[in-house]
């Protein structure tokens, strides 16, 4: 008899890996933020990586299933957006509305 894993153990392992990655990113961000300035590349990299993990469809679905909640995806997406905003703020980047003949929308501008 072969010992093949069904979809349930694979989902469980994936969820465990995602939760471990989230914990490690959060811990790295905490340590780096406490000793480095907000615009330091290591702080920015930690925020970016955590935001990408939180915004990943698989991570959101797994976290929601694990928590048994429907609000998890909304909270994780908001946290991801907050982290991205912190990155932009660290470099004094702000969005400005530009009305041009080409109909372009918002543009990122660095001070």
Task: Give a written overview of the molecule.
By secondary structure, the chain is mainly α. It is 67% helix and 9% strand. The protein starts with 6 loop residues before the first helix and ends with a strand. The mean pLDDT is 78.
Which radius of gyration do the C-alpha atoms yield? Answer: 18 Å
Helix content estimate = 55-70%
- Helix/strand structural class: mainly alpha
Strand and helix order: HHHHEE
Q: How many runs of DSSP E, i.e. beta strands?
A: 2
Count of DSSP H/I helices:
4
What gross morphology would you assign? flat
Low-pLDDT parts are: none
**Share in β-strands:** 5-15%
Average the pLDDT over all residues and give the rounded result.
78
End-to-end CA span: 66 Å
Sheet having the most strands: 2 strands, antiparallel
Task: Output the strand order for the largest sheet.
Answer: 1-2
Outline:
With 111 residues, the protein is mostly helical. It has 4 helices and 2 strands. The longest helix is centred in the N-terminal third of the chain and has 29 residues, at 7-35.
Record the SSE blueprint.
Blueprint: H1 7-35, H2 41-55, H3 57-67, H4 72-90, E1 93-97, E2 106-110
Antiparallel strand pairs: 1-2
Helix pairs in contact: 1-2, 1-3, 2-4, 3-4
Defining traits:
flat, two-stranded antiparallel ribbon, mainly alpha, 9% strand, 4 helices, single chain, 111 residues
